Amino acid sequence: MKRYSLTIRILGAVLLGALFFGFSLAQSEPVRLTFWSWRIEDKWAYDQIIAGYEATHPGVDIEFMPFESSTYATVLSTAFAAGQGPDIAHVRAYGAFEAFAAPGFLLPLDDKVSELANFSELALNGERLRADGRVYAVPFASQTLVIYYNTAIFNQLGLTPPETWDQFLATCQALKANGSIPLANGAATAFMNEVLMGVFAPNFYGADFFNQVVAGETTFEDPRFTGALARLLELRPYLAPDFLGVDYTTAQSLFVNELAAMFAGGSWEIANFRRQNPDLTFDIFPGPVLEAGQPHLASSFLDGGYAVNAATPHQAEAVEFVRFLASPEFGQQLTDLLANISPIAGVVPTDPLLQEVAEFNRNATPYVFLVGFRYENPTGSTLVQQALPEMLAGNITPEEVGRRVTEGIATYYQPFQNR
Amino acid sequence: MRPVAVPIGRWTWATLVQLLLLANTVLVLYPLVIMGLSAFKSTREIFRNPFGLPARFQLDNFLRVWEGTNFPLYLRNSLVVTTGSVLVILTLGTMAAYALARYEFRGNELLYLFFLSGLMLPLRLAVIPLFIELKALQLINSHLGLVCIYGAGGLPSAVFILTGFFRSLPRDLDNAARIDGASEAQILFRVILPLVRPALVIVGIYNLVPVWNDFFFPLVFIQDDRLKTLPQGMTVFMGQYSTEWAVLFVGLTLAALPVIALYVVLSRQFIAGLTAGALK
Amino acid sequence: MVRHLPVLAPPAAGGFRLSRRGNRALWLAMLLVPPALFFTVFVAYPIASALVYSFYGWVGVRRTTFVGLANFQRLLGQQPFQGWTINAFWHNVIVFVILLIIQDGLALLLAILLARNPRGTRFYQAVFFLPVTLSLVIVGFQWKLFLNPIFGIVNKLLRVAGLGALAQPWLGQAETALLALILVNAWRWLGFPTMVFLAGIRAIPEEYFEAARLDGANEWQVVRHVTWPLLAPAVTIIVILTFIGSFNWFELPYVMAGVDGPPNRSTDVLGLYFYRTAFGEISAGLQEFGLGSALAVLMFSVILTVSIVWTRILRRREVELA
After folding, report:
1. Cβ pair A45, B218 in contact under 8 A
2. What ipTM does this complex have?
3. What are the residues facing A128 on neighbouring strands?
4. Cβ pair A377:C288 closer than 8 A
5. Where are the alpha helices (DSSP H) in C215-288?
6. Which residue has the higher pLDDT, A164 or B135?
7. For chain C, which has fewer Cβ within 10 Å, the N-terminal or C-terminal residue?
8. Cis upstream peptide for A139 (omega within 30°)
9. Which residue segment(s) compose the domain that B122 sits in?
């Protein structure tokens, strides 16, 4: 038994050595790696990047297979549960990532991928299993919540991106007076309510709140949080007409078709907006602050990472590939091709909008419910997404939202239970 | 015997009936026409002018769908899987329903309920055990695997509907044939089956539509691009155009067209079967 | 043709029957074993295995230890799950009742009208059934666009008709969202019960109608005393299918409203609740197979019990009416 595994190790070393010297033993029969993802719209870019990788790594043949995004988790978990997972898997971050890492389906990477040193702790924490503190995936993109605005409409009315909350409301008023929909957002798609909160609320509840609430020193009944929610109510006259019935795609369409002047959303929309209406001119600004001169706080989070199947028969090749996915070279390509914000140190976006996003990221706060409270059901996100539309409809108060969220989380989170 | 006013009463009655039927026809067709027109519009037009005629009948959307997917291949795969599944459902469903409806034996009701129980939960629920099972049977990445799932999944509704129809046929039918010396198989094929043809068509369509349109099971069980079904292949395409509704419309319409075409072709027979009635 | 067969004597007794008994068993086995086996392997066994999951704890997507009824306790006894379960269950009941009245009621009316062979019967039949052949994804997508508060045709038509006051975000408010979904479902499915009823009515021998009319029955009395009782088997099929369909309702609300049953769970039904619990919702929740399976067990118990009781009642009614 021992001798057998020794043989394998020697063989592995020889193989690695062969790879190192650039001549593959398996040249005649390439190692086929499957790489699953939910990023259907990015397939062309991955194909291009992978072709480049294969050119310098003869003997590996990587197939990028994207799946419909809402079914992806099911497809992946079913395959893993039956021992048929892909060699490399695109996984989400935080709680959704733990669902795969905790049962041991993924290979710990912190001792195998030295390139992880290229990432900030914040990024790595998205792919770190809380139980053992190890990293199981190479972070791939961070997202930041911003406000998009139509520069043509703004210029026409002589408006500039507002700095403070009061200016923001005045801008909305001016747009509305001119017949534009100020803010395209609606409340019909659950997660967009959380996004709306994530864009505006951090500047009201402050930079310290996240760490305190995650540590259990305070709850979501904290007046800082409920006070921030109360300000969202002031947005109601400026959201899309009949905003309770306006869903995500309608909101996007309102902005893209220039019927609405602003859109509160994530940095992932950039490529999408450009593709849908190439004539659209838009820019971004961060959520407004209460007092002029305060630093703007933007919610940000890690979108996901690249993981290696713990049971892959081609571990060496798969690890080699994810090391590439952790390199600044890849990060640069990802940014340039897909307008993603790469969390890899040293990657500088060439796109001016992305540069702005990177600027906002310097003063970012974690997107509170996703980063802190999406590990157990009912997740903070589920609770807040259900309560916010009710608050916007005027049925419940911000305090009631805070109470419902806190009570729901308290069912599994000890520190909330005694409050 | 009838009141004198009958002719007039009958005439107004007929008008009323026609009005009702026409109203429902409009209710059915109007959305379909809008949908057809939308396929020729740009996304902006869909928003700004949803019920007018398209500014010009542009075929860009169609070209994008045709070029953006492996349409002919996916279409062929879907045809194979759907045809196979519906055949399995009809064959096995008829066998079971006939035995359950026309013969008395111990455990009849229990067996009937056993089949019926399959109607009560979505088969999606069993995706993990199914995956493990198909893997053991080496049916992952195979059309046969899908046919097995859909075929078995459609059995409960087939058994349920067909049993109902078989039961409604008079007992005397088979007894008479039996006296005439027909074998059990002959009774089924020569006497009973021709009488339930409309029911078979109903069961066929009832199962064909969801099988044709399903993308959940292919997504889980088919990974080889050459084996992908049409709705599965379309999901990839849809993902790229999630907010370009015009293109989305065309994709959805194109994917649905084969079933609609099949229905139009078969509807004559379907309607004729229903018009003739089961016992005439 | 068959009707002209002579009235039959009961089957011959004695040796004749005995010699057929072995054949009959073999014949029955031939008919029943393949479907039963096929069904067991690809439906019954996998579903049973999945239901067993409800008694286990899970780490992420891997099953761990037996936990007894813990998952059921959460679903039925712990907030917010308890509230969601009850809420979704009532919505299923509402869906069933309204569909039974509107969809099946209208279908019955249409079938009775069509059975009288008015002008254009064949055309109407072909048209009415057409939506059934459309995928729910298309239907849902199309109607979602129709009901859109800003771009939607429904509100625009209302405004054109001078009823602008009635225009509203149909899918966006708790009061109308579920009803809107139910009506769309009725639009999609109406043709199905219509055709089943029509096939049923046409299977009734013409003599029965003629006899009733000769007795001086008016149209209503013919429907009430001839069509309705003799349609009993078709009614059984439709009522049960509507019931099961209502309690398994998933695709249409999934496409039109979304997996979280918005707004504020007002369109939530057991099917959606099961789906997002077992398979997760990417933008908010986590998948929990144990909890999802427990929910499936509950759904299964309710549907099975009601279906059995109902099938019995409806069957008895068929026999009484026949």
Report:
1. no
2. 0.85
3. A135
4. yes
5. 219-222, 228-230, 232-247, 251-256, 270-279
6. A164
7. N
8. no
9. 72-276
CATH class of A25-142+301-358: alpha beta
C-alpha–C-alpha distance, residues B268 and B195, integer Å: 17
Task: Tell me which residue in A72, A189, A246 faces C150 most closely, judged by beta carbons.
Answer: A246
Report d(CA B201, CA B192) in Å as an integer: 15
Q: Is position B10 within any domain?
A: no
**Helix (H, G, I), strand (E, B), or coil: what is residue C200?**
helix
Q: Is residue B1 part of a domain?
A: no
User: What does the pLDDT look like over C203-245, one tens digit per residue?
Assistant: 788 888 889 989 888 888 888 888 998 888 889 889 988 998 9
CA dist list (Å): C247 to A325, C25, C179: 46, 37, 16
Partners of residue B238 in chain A, C-beta under 8 Å: 68
Choose the weakest-confidence range: A129-138, A198-207, A332-341.
Answer: A332-341
Distance from CA of C39 to the nearest CA of B (A): 5
Q: What is the pLDDT along chain B (280 residues), one digit of tens a residue?
A: 344 444 456 678 788 889 999 999 999 998 888 877 877 777 777 766 766 777 776 777 777 777 777 788 888 999 999 999 999 999 999 999 999 998 888 889 899 999 988 888 888 888 888 988 898 898 988 999 999 999 999 999 999 989 988 887 888 888 888 888 888 888 888 888 888 887 888 888 889 888 998 888 998 898 888 888 888 887 777 666 666 777 777 877 788 888 888 888 877 777 766 655 443 3
B277 to C8: CB separation less than 8 angstroms, yes or no:
no
Residue B95 belongs to a domain with what CATH number?
A: 1.10.3720.10
Sign of dihedral through CA atoms C189, C191, C195, C197? positive
| pLDDT at residue C5 is higher than 60 | no
Instruction: Say what the pTM is.
Output: 0.87
Two structure tokens written together for A252:
């996007």
Instruction: Name the CATH superfamily for C77-321.
Output: MetI-like (1.10.3720.10)
* pLDDT at site B273: 63
- Name residues 90-129 of chain B within 8 A of C (Cβ): 92-93, 95-96, 98-100, 103, 105, 111, 113-129
Number of Cβ atoms within 10 Å of the Cβ of B191: 18
Residue B34: inside a domain, yes or no? no
Using CA of residue B15, residue B18, residue B24, residue B27, what is the dihedral sign? negative
Mutation target vs C (from B21, B89, B104, B142; most C CBs, 10 A cutoff): B21
Residue B48 inside a domain? The answer is no
Q: What is the pLDDT of residue A126?
A: 92
Distance CA C102, CA C235 (A): 15
Give the contacts of A164 (CB within 8 A, at least 6 positions apart): A288, A289, A290, A291, A292
List of residues 6+ apart from C109 with CB closer than 8 A: B20
Residue-range domain boundaries for chain C: 12-68, 77-321
CB-CB neighbours of A221 under 10 Å: 18
Residues in chain A with CB shorter than 8 Å from the CB of C258 are: 189-190, 247
By CB atoms closer than 10 A (0-12, 13-18, 19+), residue C302 is middle
Number of independent structural domains in chain B: 1
| pLDDT tens track for A201-256 | 999 999 999 999 999 999 999 999 999 999 999 999 999 988 988 888 889 989 99
Query: What average pLDDT does the segment C75-90 reach?
Result: 91
Tokens of A80: 């893993």
Look up residue B25 and give its two tokens: 């026809």
